[in-house]
């Protein structure tokens, strides 16, 4: 079991770590041009797409859970149909995004602030990169499907190839052809379609047992389609609630002043870095829990949960020790602003304990996705967001200030872990999972 978990977790961790690398290269290239307006254009444009695509992350999660269950049950036709449904849904959503690109950009640039020149270049970036929507959402479907068939190496290869192609084209277009933010956008488009073609190639070459004749009637079979949209819809609402909490956190940080916003933003990067590792094991939990459920092996599912939590606590404790003893030098890597660094020190406590109090939520997320217990995930996210996070903030912020905001976020993560643990006893750890 440990070997299976590590085999799935490590490639996912590598995949997760490649995500911020591309953004760093994009900003570095623009940062060496003669006008800072290009940095602003990339920042605004990337923010829009990060929001759009993170909202459709349910394509990966829903595909992973349903595929792993069909794989565990050895239902080859259903394994293939999940991929077909996910790809068709991704294509439909991508076409909707492209058709609605004008109202989307209008609303986005109404909400996002920036100078006239920055917005002008950001719109140019937006109208180019929007063309990658079918490839991006198609890759989401493939990522989840490959994980569902217990293969985390192919998604890692895809992520690495997409990023290498993107970075190489960035340098070619910017330094070779003299392009600016538009070159970065075209590089992203070409890289995404390169990844999609490679994903399709791996499927055709490595998974011939799942090649079935396309049948629209089987894809839209009522019962399967109802479950497919039900699971994905629940995960979407759960994601919206996570957005709400993170947006509220950022908004209240900004309201407290530029310095507090800078402090909280820097500290939150450490939470994100921990999440890359925690998510790696959560993805392993998705694949193995779904496989065990599909095969109706309750004992195996319990073994998966126990092993994933052991690994999770090791990761969490390791990060707590690293942050506890090394936070000062780590923060100096992130910033050399002495005022911000000194203001951040009173809040180190919240980041040091964050891995230990949040690991359960990460682990249970993976388990619930694998078990397709999406309705419970949705309900728990709504309840803890509205009845734990908000009350915790409003009851403490007038007394504790910014500490109250961090306390509320920590309580949110604790409550999510406890809520899913409570539900799992009757909704996941039984032969028929809700």
Explain how this protein is built.
By secondary structure, the protein is mainly α. It folds into two domains: 1-220, no CATH class; 232-434, no CATH class. The chain is 86% helix and 0% strand. It has 17 helices and no strands. The chain has helices at residues 2-31, 37-55, 58-72, 76-99, 101-111, 116-129, 133-148, 153-176, 181-206, 216-219, 222-255, 258-294, 298-334, 338-344, 348-370, 374-400, 402-427. The longest helix has 37 residues, at 258-294. The protein is globular and about 60 Å long. It starts with a helix and ends in a 7-residue tail after the last helix.
Summarize the structure.
The chain is mostly helical and 434 residues long.
- Return Rg in Å: 22 Å
Shape descriptor: globular
Instruction: Classify the beta-strand content into a percent band.
Output: under 5%
Helical coverage, percent range: over 70%
* Number of H- or I-type helical stretches: 17
Layout of helices and strands, plus pairs?
Elements: H1 2-31, H2 37-55, H3 58-72, H4 76-99, H5 101-111, H6 116-129, H7 133-148, H8 153-176, H9 181-206, H10 216-219, H11 222-255, H12 258-294, H13 298-334, H14 338-344, H15 348-370, H16 374-400, H17 402-427
Helix pairs in contact: 1-2, 1-8, 1-12, 2-6, 3-4, 3-7, 3-11, 3-12, 4-7, 6-9, 7-9, 8-9, 11-12, 11-16, 11-17, 12-13, 12-14, 12-15, 13-15, 15-17, 16-17
